[in-house]
Amino acid sequence: MSRVGKNPVAVPDGVELQVESDRVVAKGKLGELSAPLTDNVRTRMEDGKFWVEPADTSEFARSMWGTTRANVANMVKGVSEGFTRNLEINGTGYRAMVQGNTLTLQLGYSHDIKYEIPEGITITCPKATQVQVHGASKQQVGQVAAIIRGFRPPEPYKGKGVKYSDETLIRKEGKKK
Fold first, then answer.
1. pTM of the model
2. Which of 67, 78, 106, 141 has its CA 20 to 30 A from that of 23?
3. Which residues does the UniProt record annotate as the domain Large ribosomal subunit protein uL6 alpha-beta (predicted)?
C-alpha cells in the first residue's frame, strides 16, 4: 500500500483552508472549493501543513484517510494553480472555436456541435485543432474534457477524432488486398 495519507498537504501562501463541522473549504485566487469530511478521519492544521489521520483502525477509515488527503491536496492545487487538460483534434475539416460561452466543434457530422461551457471552466483554442480546458476543480476539468472527447472519440484506423494530447493510440492495420 502507498499510505498516501501519511504525507501532509502543504498549504501555500494565498490559500486559506477552513475545517467546518462536516466539510473542508479551500479559498484561493482561482476561487473556492469544498469537499465533505466523514467521521472516519480527523484533521488538523499545523505549521502551514494540513494533516489527515484515520479516526479508528477500520478498513473504511483507512481508505477514507488517503481519499480525504488526496481530495484536499487537489483542492489546494486547484485554487492556487488550477488544472488544465489539453485535447487534440485530428481529421480533415475537423476544427474547434470558442464563441462567447459556447465551444463550437466541427467533427465531420452534418451539423456543428455547440457545447455550452459550464461555470468555473475556461476553454481556449490556441489553434483550430487544439482545445485547452482549464479550471480549479480537477473533477470538473476532467469531466468536461471527457464530454468533449466523447463527441468523436479517436478511431483506431486513421486516428481521426478528438483525443487527449498525452493519449497514445494503438493503431490497427487496414484491410489488405
1. 0.90
2. 141
3. 11-82, 91-164
